[in-house]
Fold these 2 entries.
Entry 1:
Amino acid sequence: MINTETILVTGGAGFIGANFIHFALKNRPNWQIVNLDLLTYAGNLISLATLPVEHRSRHTFVHGDIRNTDLLARLFQQHAFAGVIHFAAESHVDRSIRGPQVFVDTNVGGTCTLLQASLDAWQERGRPADFRFHHVSTDEVYGSLGLTGAFTEQSPYDPSSPYSASKAASDHFVRAYGRTYDLPFVITNCSNNFGPYQFPEKLIPLMICNILAEKPLPVYGNGENIRDWLYVLDHCSALLRVFEKGTAGQTYNIGGGTEQSNIDIVRQLCKIMDKKLGRTAGASESLIAFVTDRPGHDFRYAIDAAKIKEELDWQPQYSFAEALRNTVDWYLANMAWVDSVRSGTYRQWLELNYDKR
Ligand code: NAD
Ligand code: TYD
């Protein structure tokens, strides 16, 4: 007899959330997932249409907003959730620069509404010690590094963009609910992800799509900014490990230890794709266009992942090179997915963000 656990996942139609649902349903046959997602421009159910038939009955989609108190109360009444894994957010730094308010509303307000609904249900159910509120957060809360060093769980918060400020605020609220009301939580702060189902506004999928279409490749500033990249499936395995084995009240940094400058990534993508598309060597690199820098652009992110590695025995499984090739292959095979997530509003965004840079 399988002991079924029902988990509330928010934002499960977005990039990491959808990958996590695929991963968790495959690896945890006793899980039932209720997936609450507003289906903003960044969320699309076709990312879950590929769930194997035998896993689908364990996934229930609820179209709704994490800011909707009544909806959350109903969901917590209908299900005795073993935990909440909270992905839902506005996630794109450039959009936060153009319009910060929705980042405050969703990332801060929405997280608080979800925390309160979780707390109410947790208290009503007699405060089960094994409940977990897992907040999925970013390394961007720590601000920018110089050429050396890496973020640890003790690094001070110093966010630069409206996006990272909103994620920092939401992290603080999660900790406050832990300290004030004893709500059992874990927080993970992860570095830049890449892989299948990532909305093509982020660096890697944007470049893949532009290389394919032979459009300019907009590199911000001099392209020397550095990010610590992690394949999304490695993030998923880390999330599952922390959700199940992490100590309540703790924070875990997650990163792949793969630092790359933006320009190096773009050049690698050009090389891989020239080969795959049968283009002359160097053809795609000629599309690189250095454009006006992002305001407040953090120079470097790097994660010290010693805590999750030592305490929870987690290791990334994919090399950066292999994961980048997998990602290119996935996009080339799934341009129908790209076309269907690119709505009219996305095209307006491209004009707004890139035309006059
Ligand atoms: P995404 O933008 O691809 O997906 C966000 C999802 O949240 C979408 O499905 C969207 O419809 C949903 N959503 C937005 N507002 C909502 C609301 N009010 N109610 C319900 N659903 C709503 O984001 P992602 O890249 O998958 O990131 C997921 C989480 O991981 C975010 O919290 C992000 O801050 C964090 N994170 C992302 C990265 C990364 O590299 N992408 C790295 C570290 C942490
Ligand atoms: P992004 O994918 O937006 O992630 P984040 O800002 O959360 O790290 O950007 C990754 C890096 O790539 C960042 O340094 C900004 C840069 N970048 C470009 O140079 N050109 C682009 O068109 C985009 C979207 C990003």
Entry 2:
Amino acid sequence: MNDSGFINDYMEKKHCRVCKSTALTTYLDLGKMPLVNSYVESANDNIPCNRYPLAINYCSECSMSQLSIVVDPSIMFKNYFYRSSISQTFVNHCAEYAENSARRFSFKDTDLIIDIASNDGACLREFKKQGVRVLGVDPAENLAKIAIESGVPTVAKFWNAETAGQIHTEYGKAKMITAMNVFAHVDDLDSFLAGINTLLDDDGVFAIECPYMFNFMTNTEFDTTYHEHLSYFLLKPIMHLVKQHDMEVFDVLTVNIHGGSLRVYVKKKSSKAWDICYQNIDKLLLMEEETGFHKTEKYIHFSVAVKKIRDDMIRLIKSIKAEGGKIAAYGASAKGNILSNYCGFGKLDIDYIIDDTPEKQGCLAPGHHIPIVAFDKLTKEPPEYLILLAWNFSRELMNKTIKYQKQGGKYIIPIPQVKVVPEE
Ligand code: DWN
Ligand code: ZN
């Protein structure tokens, strides 16, 4: 057992992290998968990747969905390849979020805004434009360095109660704490929320933004299942969880980013500063209830839809290759690594994966070790088909490849169903 209590890099999760129930039902099992952000040096092509069980369990007590294991976070997050700022779509999303927050919560220039899992500072750079003090928290030392060099002060640590205490001593209380694409990545949510309680001003705002289970299932976004994503949230379990920490949800909305996300605004129960938007909250809870998401039956057949996407992708790739067609991909994303490994694709199927993240170029993608290359490869060796593995940014990727389109190049978009664009 290592010093963080992990044997063999991971541990089984036998109880619900929200309500502690053991009434868990497995409804999706993708088998053993590699860690999606463990990109491989090309010299290590002959060394097989570690693979870990990847399955999701549903809690019938509180409607929480969570992975059946927890992989040691220090393996996944201390040196992190993913850079939030590569996607202009995401940067624009952050700019809108920062402007909206400054207006709604009447930021003053003395206010401190903290972003947990701040990555390369993409979001806090937008908040900084609103004239507030900012502080990032992210365990990835490589990303913290980039953020600091871009003018975003960053503490290179995991967020928990202890880190919150240290920040409180040095920086004081925060007006707003944002948790974008991290709340689903954390096993000990009790320590996470204890840290929020420590650092959040009495009338402060805690804002969670995470992938929404409603979109995950409705659009069969199974490839966003990976070991970093421990939880797959509905609004119902989030409300249950924050209540256990003397906090309450005061507003909620769905946002069109990363395949469809939930943004949940939380305040301390004692604060009277923010009206509770019951209409928005009740509307979403009712939608979850009426569409069956609060019942186990809803989940039982999800794997059928997942297997259909896998089978459709395999059939399409096989038919293209049978006719001698060349196939490449764009977006060496975490989701793309799950989709391509789950379909069993390898170098004989996909020649290369384009990615604009400098740190990923020249590496091999986890599992199948398909080479990751810079954009200019598309001009030098154009394929007949380009799989958009970052389908959540299809528009941005297609806008970047107009020349490829004009030369008759085609796209394969795998989610929510496998389709070729333009249609054949
Ligand atoms: O939660 C997480 C989400 C937010 O980001 C993390 N745990 C991991 C990561 O997941 P992902 O890698 O699937 O995220 P993206 O943002 O869908 O990945 C897009 C990939 O495509 C990146 O490697 C960057 C690349 N890309 C590019 O090369 N050129 C993306 C765009 C838009 C581009 O123009
Ligand atoms: Zn539960």
